[in-house]
Amino acid sequence: MLPANTVPNTASMEFNWLTFNGVSGPSITPMIVRLGSRVRLRIVNLGMDHHPIHLHGNQFVLTGTEGGRAPESSWYPMNTVLVGVAQARVVEFDAKFPGSWMLHCHLPHHMMNNMMDLLRDRQIETADQTDPKALSQMQTLVNSLHVEHIHHAPIAPDANSVKGFPQDAFMEMGMDAAVDKPETYGLPPNWSAGMMGMMTLIRVLPDQQYEEIMRKKESGDAAR
Ligand SMILES: [Cu+2]
After folding, report:
1. Which of 87, 147, 157, 219 has its CA 20 to 30 A from that of 52?
2. What pTM did the predictor assign?
3. pLDDT tens track for 145-202
């Protein structure tokens, strides 16, 4: 947190990087799901922090814990499941909605480094280079962090010409090529700039796209 602030800047670059399966986004391999299938996620917390794991675009039910399968009578819809230290949580959902949906920890502190600003409509889309929307989001962020500035502090029109701007707000650097794999095939250019930290994607794909990625996995083809 910045000095004299009580709210973490969830878009800032932060020292700690939290992981799924030992790696941070965008290196975490997206999960590929065929549209219409039933999905089961087993999330095990072997770390030292609790993590409320949140899935976009879908509701799931909690079907099990580290103690085993839960009776169906106990299932109820949710989209965030708290996975405490040493706990396991099994959730299931019907993949009815096509899209590349984010799966991430929802603790503000743990959302650091994930560059949420760049996401639109809760799906990964093209993360433009410092576009007007991103600038206005940064302005909102600045306003929220400096409560004495209740007016809308303007950002100079040439701010983007300042070397390193806007550090501590969002990152413009995608790493698509570095994390290229069959499971990332078809994501929009620079998708990786919006996928940092403890987050990944569940990609619910229609038959043709699903099978294309499966073919690439089997053949060992380059993703692009
Ligand atoms: Cu967390």
Report:
1. 147
2. 0.70
3. 443 332 333 445 565 565 544 433 344 456 888 899 999 999 987 787 667 778 899 9
**What region does 167 belong to: left with phi over 0, alpha with psi -120 to 50, or beta?**
beta
* Greatest distance between any 2 Cα atoms in the chain: 60
Domains of the chain: 31-113+175-210 (2.60.40.420)
Long-range contacts of 216-222 (CB under 8 A, 24+ apart): 216/182, 216/185, 217/182, 217/183, 221/182, 222/180
**Burial of 21 per CB tally in 10 Å (0-12, 13-18, 19+):** exposed
Distance CA 26, CA 130 (A): 19
Starting at the edge strand found earlier in the chain, the sheet holding 199-205 runs 31-34, 199-205, 99-105, 51-55, 80-83
Neighbours of ion ligand 1 (CB under 5 A): 51, 105, 107, 110
Ligand 1 center to 215 CA (angstroms): 34
Q: How far is the CA of 11 from the centre of ligand 1 (A)?
A: 15
